[in-house]
Amino acid sequence: VADVPAQSLALTFKPVAKSVADVLSVPEGYTATVLLATGDPLKAGVTAYKNDGTDHDFNNRAGDHHDGLFYFGLNAAGNGWDASNAQRGLLCINHEVAEDLGFMHPAGATDYGKDSTNQRPTQEIGKEVAAHGVTVVEVTKTATGYRINPENPLNRRITAATLFELAGIAAGSDAMKTAFSPTGQQTRGTVNNCANGYTPWGTYLTCEENWAEYFYRREDDSVRTPKELAGFKRYGIKGDTSGRYNWARAGANDSSDLYRRWNTGVSGATAAEDFRNIANTFGWVVEINPFKPDETPKKRTSLGRFAHEGAWPAPVTAGKPVVFYMGDDSRNEYIYKYVSDALWNEADANGGMAAGDKYLNAGKLYVAQFNADGTGAWLLLAMDNKAITAYPDYAFNDAADLLIHARLAADAVGATKMDRPEWGAINPLNGEVYMTLTNNVSEKNGRGVATPLDAANPRYYNGVKGEKAVAGNLNGHIIRWREASNDHAATQFQWDVYLFGAPASAAVDTNISQLTADNDFSSPDGLWFSAVNPGLLWVQTDDAYYTDTTNCMMLAAIPGQVGDGVSTTLTNKAVATNNGADQDVNTRVGKQPGDNLRRFLVGPKDCEITGMTETPDGKALFINIQHPGENSSETWATDGNMTSHWPDGGNARPRSATVVITRNDGGKIAV
Ligand code: FEO
Ligand code: CA
Ligand code: CA
Ligand code: CA
């Protein structure tokens, strides 16, 4: 890879206007078609989803809250990956949460709040558990466009009850042992499957993000070791909670450990009830072979435990390590990368889980440090790094303990706290890596409040948005870097900021990228470089700070390269921040995005746009609309009001859905 060649690529569509209507808007000449919404059947013979809360068999239906997704073209035999097949493929779709419980049950959910100590109906819990996880489903191009094929035997669900093997360095360690798996080699369930990834050997990666909120924990802290409590605190596993959905409190007649396993309590637990370590079996990158349902999915512990957004592979080269970039999406958390010990061999290109064992179980985990001068370093998280063993706040036992507590290890080496790292993407033209930093807002610990501004996270806002007082980085930005010598295994890099989100009407010190009515946005989240049209970047938003003006959206961009974006330096001058350090952000603004950034799509009300993948001919784009109408999910059952009825219209309950976008003249998308 070399410098970006002269751009032959140009955006060819007319920008879509901002909108707060309950519709999905795409440019003139394009069509968006709903493929698979929450509850839709995945198997022949499953009845159409009634969408009235009475269908319970989510093991045979699309789950809820569609998120990251990936298209694997099917080979002629229909049992392996053909990366060139645009006619027929398997879609792997994440289902992050079952958050809109009010829409999932007939008249709202029962006692699901984290403060509730009441028991919940087992049937409701079973349905919510099954609505989490991943869908694998065939999509086929027909004479009338792409359709789901319910006849493919590979169609299946992975849920919050599915069996997983724990693999890699932390598997089998004492901290992974539970009543279900006394050897610490297995666990059940994956939750909060946010963004995703894929491997060069034809498997799917799904990533566990806000898993820390799922556990019932009401035990007395005195039964915990100080190190356990330090881990709970650092990962946000709180006490005095029944967990996000109160899943541990199934009905009185159902004491199955399928429910008890969400309870971390240890007081008085028998060996058969002891799930004190259950939370350590969540927070991982999870590998699934979509082509081989008989291969048990694996949680890959060598990639570290945190609030994983996704895992994005660098392009592979024979004889070089396999590299994945990862973000930890919480306020003031870090960017990581994993570099395999094993060197890439093309013979593994359809290697399934055995190749996963080869490349994902042993490697080096690094965390990023962004320096003010535009350089950066990857800091090694390993027991032979003195900064780890000398860390005064936590004594790591061994490599397994380090991986289970990767956040503490990253603290120990002095990594750079970022404004919520979400999706990453690698530019196929030049190997540069992009990552969205969605926002960092909190009156207690947002950017510029408890965490000082720095060159890579330089924005601070203090004011009122809607009815809420807010402080921090409100609209987010997109950072990018180029590894030394364009080697993804390098430990040094150069970085700049490609783009700052902002309302077009904002003052120039906020609207640094000089966005216009055609491309202004807030809170970038999803990110995807087209492989078919190298240099074409897609950006999706998950926003709560510009929604009075517009629903969430997707933009297309042709972004240039590191060095021509925005660089920032901080000096101790004018801008007062809550943390007491007076700082001034000096920005050197390079190339503005201008016409090379255009709004391509605006979603229906109260949704997030997330997940992107394309067919290998570049003529179909798959995206997800997540949680339309979410702001009314808890209240509609009592007041009858829903903010969205998308996609079914009328008075229907809103549903998340996978959408396919094509151009009416059959051409490539966007360029
Ligand atoms: Fe589930 Fe960070 O988005
Ligand atoms: Ca996200
Ligand atoms: Ca988000
Ligand atoms: Ca969401």
From TrEMBL:
Native organism taxonomy: Bacteria, Pseudomonadati, Pseudomonadota, Gammaproteobacteria, Thiotrichales
One short Pfam name that applies is PhoX
**Any idea what this protein is called?**
PhoX family phosphatase
Tell me which domain of life the UniProt entry assigns to the organism this sequence originates from.
Bacteria
| Database matches in InterPro entries | PhoX, TAT_signal
